[in-house]
Amino acid sequence: MPWEVRTRQDEIRFTLVVSLIVLAASGVLRSLMLPPELAMPTLVPGAAMAVMIAAPIGWIIARHLRAVHDLSARLEHALHHDLLTGVRTRASFYEAARALEDQPCVVIVADIDHFKGFNDCHGHFAGDQALRQFATLLAGNCRGGDLVARFGGEEFVIVLRGTGADQGRAIADRLADRVRASPIYVGERSLSLTASFGVAAWTPGGDMDHAIQQADGALYRAKNSGRDRVCCHHPGPEGAAPLQAVS
Which of 14, 54, 80, 124 could tie 19 with a disulfide, CB 3.0–4.6 Å? Predict the structure, then answer.
């Protein structure tokens, strides 16, 4: 297994191991190549010289290995995460969703209200800041095992593991509160946002795309009911009933 150098402690350990290997090899070669009357008197100076040569070389190699690991980690993160917001991409979301355990989940589709108008009024820099803060808020109010992904534009999808419909609705209400109460600072300006949320249950073995479609339908009902609210999918002809987010 390749040696992974991730931290400063790993660099020190790698340097020590390289130095010890070179020191041992130096001693073995000295005993094999020199007669005993020459090998013993030069043992200490030879060992000191071996360590003086090996330690800097080991340290340089360790630094390069750590740089390679850091670059690989950044590339891996960039491959699976949206560059602007830092949450998962759509492709990464589906890859992670395939590994969901056999437990019920809740799917939430979240969308920033009037985002095009926000961009047109305040500029794309402010829009990017809004997207970053919105994604940070969503991820910061979910657990480590939950999934948060940007599906495109201002639309995000969340999967809450081991969560029932009522708890998922309560979490969506809380997210709506947090968005409403979190100003966005662009220079000296303090701007506000609201968001709408659609919630649907996902059962083990079910189709994730179907659950997302149900949550998306609930989201559109929330939009059509006045925005800044949560709407849950319910089986039946009505599909979803709007619920005003707690203010």
Answer: 54
